[in-house]
């Protein structure tokens, strides 16, 4: 029985490890946050743990007080209830105590929010993401002719030809045809808007989540610390296909990014194919980029 439990645990660990090796995305039975790929997400993970240091003791204290009241002041033990209605000391304590606790939570929380929404001066590049019913489109601010493309969910038919490893890297309902490509270690300013209804751009591993509102340009940023393929989703209910407009960001070395960008100016499909061949090895068999035109 014990061995079986260990085997299950080991299998789970393999599963977690294997999927994290391919791409940053949610895993089955996951309850915690995704591992961080940016400094902001590191801070968010820290803040979550920090908050628990308040939440758990407070919850236990309230539970303890409730148990004391239930036991000590039940009718059997305390037939004549006290008629006390005020106690100034207690009222001061239960007002000032929570205020202090809230300050301890609010100050780092607002600091983090400010950091999230304030791109550092002189970002290395700017990408604009536009939410549409139901896909994302992206624009790169590069020279005279900005690069722009749509990014659509990779359909089941297009995934059918993928090998096992590729299926893990290009998961169902998360993989897209044209990924956002950015260089590793560079500050990317992200402008987010929408063309029709409100969407939201969310990339859990980056600690990015910002509304995409028609007629309004929201600004945030990220600096990915490691290369990889990252998945996020639209996070504002935007219509019937809200669940089918994922976000994929591929973080690559600067030289690969430069090569991709140069090639993408003339042929995005070929640029994507070349990039995948150089980052994924030759395992990739299906022409993911080919269904771009739709
Ligand atoms: Cu949506």
Helices and strands, with pairings:
Elements (H helix, E strand, L loop, with lengths): L1 H21 L16 H34 L15 H30 L7 E8 L2 E6 L6 E5 L4 H4 L4 H6 L10 E4 L4 E7 L4 E5 L4 E5 L5 E5 L5 E7 L11 E7 L1 H11 L3 H13 L14
Parallel strand pairs: 1-5, 4-10
Antiparallel strand pairs: 1-2, 2-3, 5-8, 6-7, 6-9, 9-10
Helix pairs in contact: 2-3, 6-7
Notable traits:
40% helix; Helix Hairpins; CcO_II; 2 domains; disordered C terminus; signal; oxidoreductase activity; 10 strands; CcO_II-like_C; 294 residues; Immunoglobulin-like; binds copper (II) ion; transmembrane helix
Structural features, described:
The protein is of the alpha+beta class and 294 residues long. The chain folds into two domains: 178 residues, Immunoglobulin-like (Sandwich), CATH 2.60.40.420; 79 residues, Orthogonal Bundle (Helix Hairpins), CATH 1.10.287.90. Helix content is 40%, strand content 20%. The chain is built from seven helices and ten strands. A five-stranded mixed beta sheet has the order 3-2-1-5-8, with no helix packed on it. It has a five-stranded mixed beta sheet with strand order 4-10-9-6-7, covered by helices on one side. A hairpin with a 4-residue loop joins strand 6 and strand 7. Helix 2 packs antiparallel against helix 3. The radius of gyration is 25 Å and the shape is elongated. The C terminus is likely disordered. The site of copper (II) ion has 7 residues, from loops.
